[in-house]
Amino acid sequence: MFNENYKQWTIRLVSDMKEVRAKKYLGQHFLRDLDIARRIADSLVFDGTMPVLEIGPGMGVLTQYLLQNPNIELTAVEIDAESVVYLRKRFPELNVLEADFLKMKLEEFFPSSFCIIGNYPYNISSQIFFKLLDYRHQVPCLSGMVQKEVAERIASKPGHKAYGILSVLLQAYYDVEYLFTVSEHVFDPPPKVKSAVFRLKRNRREQLDCDETMFKTVVKTAFNQRRKTMRNSLRSLVNNDTELLRNNIFDKRPEQLSVDEFVALTNLIVSQKTN
Fold first, then answer.
1. What's the pTM?
2. Domain 2-202 is of which CATH architecture?
């Protein structure tokens, strides 16, 4: 049965490519492997029934499996007008929003909790996850596919080269799982890099034990000069306070600090500013 479905999908995909062209400026690479699409759909884990937002459904290879799940109340957001026309024709039951996800006020569409999934456009994937942080209290789970390098960065632990701003900010609020790697040859057109599927699940931190705005500033400032020690990269944030800078934490480079250590560092800086 699967082989018959796969064959039918492949034939239709070749035909439908005339209706929907992958656009480089939108970072579009259409997945054409049904097994991977099914595995991505299955990566979204939550209890009960939940509204789900699919970002960038393209030609609907992932969408079709999400629609089959009775626990998912699916909405899709797509910026490409050709894809929107195609999706509305092929999936008349699907709620498709023609919009730019990065400009959406998500609370207008989802007043309570919802999950996010997608084969995320490569050119805006990091921006998507930074926006997620603004809605972290509403989004208990996010999963999907990105460039392998981005997935590795998100999942990386302290001490590794890939560990950076996204790693710290996302891991502050989410548990991260790198699920599996995807070959570049299952896309049309094929990207120049491999992809990966990952999952974020909200952890138990309702809020950080520090000023969260300053936490973000400290993390970004530190990693913007990641080759320097914290003593050199954060001087501007501590007004060159030589006594504070003697603390051993300033001997380290940003990739050596865990989330909890960044929280402690933020508290040190805030206390200096209030004294």
1. 0.89
2. 3-Layer(aba) Sandwich (3.40)
